[in-house]
Write a structure and sequence with these properties.
Four copies of one chain form a homotetramer.
Chain A (H helix, E strand, L loop, with lengths): L4 H23 L4 H37 L2 H18 L2
Helix pairs in contact in A: 1-2, 2-3
Chain lengths: 90, 90, 90, 90
């Protein structure tokens, strides 16, 4: 992975902490709307981490393949990005 | 919370396990596209849990307020649902 | 429909104008990234109109059913809202 | 634009027809939930067109820049894709 690994791990740790918090909210019978708000915040954080990972991937691996790779490698990398865009637009 | 608490906790545990798995993927330098795929899957799972929590809330608290609550309580519950829809459509 | 009809029609007219603009961009071979940006802006506008329609529906029909309807009518309205939330969280 | 222009224009025409249909639904005071369903369908169609445009862009312009462009051109194309991913993950 080419993204700043420490930064990604830190954000993943935050997301895990948020899920732990949501489990405690469920356990202590907290109000559904507050639980829902926290679930949306954690999903947003995961989307942001995903954007960071993908941008670092494009700056790193895709850029390298475009510069140094064979035409097949370049094409494969671009097909992968198309696959990501397909999932993100669904 | 009115959703089936055991079911919600079980799904949250799955989401936390997925995040642990993603952290191991980052640690062992796995391919970005695979990490991205897992991040999207976990965000989808959180969205599904959110839908479950909200549906149980509507069947439970909102239904009760509509049946037994004062006009103010009913209105407050409906305003909360509007707030959720606002966030979900953004 | 309970939303401010003039306001909803005005926004829909804006969305249609944006689609006409995108068709002209395609016809005159404009740059893909600019076309993509416009497509996302128009989808966002439709999501905003959807939020407006749903909020007015909740303030209007659902509120009325909660106040005046039979238990069956109330329940049906709430089930419809659950269906909307299901689609929005997908 | 590198996407199949006729196909994109046909889908845009469909989206415009759907918006015209929604305007008629609003005019004839159709039920909000049905209007909401149509708004979501049209937003989904625009997202699908966006995916088609972006994939054709990557297969075309980005692929060409990766093969024939200067390092600066390649980098610029990749930065644009990062910008798109940023918007799509929001």
């Amino acid at each position: 992975m080419r993204a700043d690994r420490e930064q990604v791990l830190r954000l993943l740790k935050t997301a895990r902490g948020q899920i732990d918090g949501i489990m405690r909210m469920v356990d202590s019978d907290r109000y559904c709307i507050d639980i829902s708000t926290q679930l949306m915040a954690t999903a947003s954080l995961l989307n942001r981490i995903n954007a960071d990972v993908l941008k670092a991937h494009i700056e790193g691996c895709v850029q390298d393949a475009a510069t140094l790779g064979t035409p097949e490698e370049r094409h494969e990398k671009l097909l992968e990005i198309e696959g990501v865009i397909d999932k993100l637009t669904r």
